[in-house]
Amino acid sequence: MNPPKKPRSPKKTLIYYYIIVLLAIFLVNSLLIPLFSTPESENVTYNTFIDMLQNDELKEVEVRDQDNVIVFTTNDEADKIYMTNRVDDPDLTNRLLDHDVVFTTIWPNPPSRFWTTILPLVLMVGLSVWMFRSMQKRMNAGAMSFGKSGAKIYAETETGKTFADVAGEDEAKEALKEIVDFLHDPGKYAAIGARLPKGALLVGPPGTGKTLLAKAVAGEAHVPFFSISGSEFVEMFVGMGAAKVRDLFKQATEKAPCIVFIDEIDTIGKRRDNAAGVGGNDEREQTLNQLLTEMDGFDGKKGVVILAATNRPEILDKALLRPGRFDRRIPVELPDLAGREAILKVHAKNVKMAPDIDYNAVARATAGSSGADLANIVNEGALRAVRQGRSLVRQDDLEESVEVVLAGYQRKNAVISPKEKKIIAYHEVGHALVAAKQTDSAPVHKITIIPRTSGALGYTMQVDEGEHVLMNRDEVYNKIATLTGGRAAEELIFNQITTGASNDIEQATRLARAMITRYGMTNSFDMVALETVNNQYLGGDTSLACSQETAAKIDEEVVRIVRSAHEKAQGILKENAAKLNELAQYLLERETITGEEFMEILNR
Ligand code: ADP
Ligand code: MG
Ligand code: ZN
Question: Which ligand is closest to the CA of 428, given by its number?
């Protein structure tokens, strides 16, 4: 396979374009216009026409019934067209035939010079000026795709984003500030001989603002921003990906200092050792090789900084992470409580908010959400306000949209029998009561038994008062007990169990297993890592790293932990059966119960 020809740079394309337009104008002028323009025409009287006919001067004749004229040419001047008004002359045809005149179509109406020569010229010139203008405009601002291959390189002269648009993420911003400074004044670094990393890798879960941060770096430094997404390479023809990368770096070097941003780099930067399908991975490999070549090839002092983003750093090819390539790794984590509040406020700036919004409360209810989720929550809140014909977004709009975004839209018309509704209410209160009664466990924020489109029948929102980075053993264990609280309530009240606890069971099992295999929280296995996490950011699936016998023992231990937590939950509920009934009745009536209402009933 030969690498394809280099795609042309836009400047060259422009020159080619000009030559083509000039050629076209020339062609039209020299070939077409003479055809259209019949040089002269003359109106003559019918008498003259008859005279000329008698003298055998006529060559061709066209009788135009619709215009009621006769158009003709003479033998002397082939180019000249004569015209005369038609007169009612029944003999005409015979006379014409007698004189050997050719009947034909003489095209067209004798046109005037203006329409045949000036107008096309004006049109051509106008068109080319317009095309040139619009092309220039696209060159100067906004996104433009270069070359012929499918993947688009987006170029922005000014991203318009700054670090102020990125809330929280202070560590990431701190790490990127040096790059901004470098882009401001590459000379300063070159003078000392310092060399900044050519590339930095933004690593973190989806929606945490990696793309936003990359744009903010370009915005802060007032340099152009070239971006391309790895996933766009996937659908491309063989060889195009490599060409695209070459093109990208050529553009960037011309515009230095600037930022080159490769989003979703994992799609091209996947480790190369996994078995290549027939030809399937060739393309990706070529693209990756080209990327590595380009990164090695260009001069780091020029002021081109390459940023890349991924949420799967562990699958990246080692070659990408070597010194001189993406050797700086910048974690972009999910926001903490303060970060969430700040993000909410950043997005609230663009929306008309009621003055008394409690952002902290919303932030506390959204543990684990990404910046993108929070941006979405603010927007959903604004949409709800519009739907209800209000001009300000209120607290309840935001609280509703928290549920919309985190749990799916309310399923207003879902049919649930009263009996099922009762079971769901007890189940949810069971979770909440167990959580509230264990001092170390977080209190509830809100319980609702309005079903969501996501499939959750009820929903207990637990809120951590402070942000937890660490969980101690009791807290993990209590969390498992809380998870079993729903099922425990069903058992206690209905003496029957349902399928409604499947998600709880899954979570409880995962936690108990992690206590043993990853957190070293059991005596039997001490601090031995029995599992490794394959993918930290997506799903966090794990694989066992122990013998079969140990695996069997782990399973036993998991059962032991979950059973004991389950019994603890049953005990708590039995002791507080009266409160369980009272709270469940309240929830059944109102469908929603807030944390304050819950604690009020519990403590009275
Ligand atoms: P990623 O690239 O990490 O998947 P994005 O940068 O595309 O995430 O973020 C998507 C959107 O979420 C952003 O456009 C922004 O509106 C919002 N967002 C994410 N993180 C933040 C943050 N830290 N501050 C403000 N907005 C954020
Ligand atoms: Mg992104
Ligand atoms: Zn449950």
Answer: 3
